[in-house]
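Hey all, quick one. A colleague (J.T.) asked me to put the glycine job into the tracker so the inputs and the structure tokens live in one place instead of scattered across chat threads. No bug as far as I know, just bookkeeping. Sequence used:
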Amino acid sequence: MKVLVIGGGGREDAIVWALGRSPQVSEIVCAPGNGGIAQRARCVAVDQSSLKDLLRVVLAEQPELTIVGPELPLSLGIVDELQQRGLRVFGPTTAAAMLETSKAFAKDFMQRHGIPTARYAVCRSLDDVKRELQKFPQAVVVKADGLAAGKGVVMCASHDEAMHAARAIFSGELLGTAGVQLVLEEWMVGPEISFFALCDGVSAIPLACAQDHKRIGEGDTGPNTGGMGAYSTDELMDAATRTWVMEHVALPVVRGMRAEGNPFAGVLFIGLMMTPDGPRVLEFNTRFGDPETQTLMMRLESDVVDLFSAAIDGRVSELKLQWKRGAAACVVAASGGYPGKFTNGFVVRGLDAVRNGVEVFHAGTALKDGAIVTAGGRVLGLTAADVDLKGALKKIYAALQHIEFEGMVYRRDIGHRAL
Ligand code: AMP
Ligand code: GLY
């Protein structure tokens, strides 16, 4: 079958790589893809922020299956458009994607359905914020409502800081566009886990769990990034906790969305904080995580097409997925300066020297005059699996010794919490 993947980051490269191993797949197209994906699939240009352009590409290519990677095309409604035309597409509709695109919607939804999460208030003005803050301790989290590419959450040590953050959100200073509403939230503590559930509108099954490293600096210091590395192990979450999360979060989400007339199909990415009072939902994403997906694809032994098809055809409860036991990890090599300003166009060297079961997933690269050059903040994600995390990391860090580009930075402590 011909498959089209929408997106052009490390997550999409990992999905394309997994599709390439499926006997059901005869042709892979990726829009827009990147320099590395171009070596595994045919890449076609697309403006991911334009629904019209996305639709143009899908209708021109006529794939038998379309997989939407990032949140932006989901929020624009590409899934709705393709479903209306009877095309097979993996991902949620715009209405179902609101679990990610509106924090206020997600919080109200969780409250309606008794899903464990931090106490919160939705505010539409500074007066609201001032009043509602009185109900919270000094340390509080302020969240802009819409898609914010990781920049919409402000951790505040005091109510003064919270007022400052609220002003920045309502004025547009924080995100460039003025926010209409924001969410105040209780500040929780504990380790974070990314829990992935495959949903078909009616039911859900767990995929493997992963842990992301969001900060740029070693020891979890410095500003937030899209994710500087991730790992997935059997030990990350025990079977009893997985069952608890399915019963208290994933299944209530699927039942609740269906009851409200917006069935959720696709991947539900549940950002959990493991607090002393039990797991609590930090946020939902309605897509695969990046770079968590790189580790999940590395561990998945089953045909990835079966996973996508089950979600589209309402058969996830019949699906039996096989995962490699042990661990997988992904270490991101980023451009110097990221997540702030950085320069593109540096030649990436040493890619051919990477072997030993290490896969180099490309995130921000382009092909220029036959060479791979940097073209983004996160450039590569070196990924490997092994019997344990230590083994996987050892292979990855050895492979990184071969890779070179000007200004390259990576964290040397990925997986440190688990080791
Ligand atoms: P989010 O986009 O909602 O996942 O927030 C980004 C990051 O902010 C999370 O991964 C957490 O590290 C942190 N965060 C968000 N909400 C809270 C909260 N209520 N308490 C503590 N940390 C939070
Ligand atoms: N790694 C976090 C995300 O994909 O949002």
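Adding what we noticed when we looked at it: The chain has a mean pLDDT of 95. Residues 239-259 form the longest helix (21 residues).
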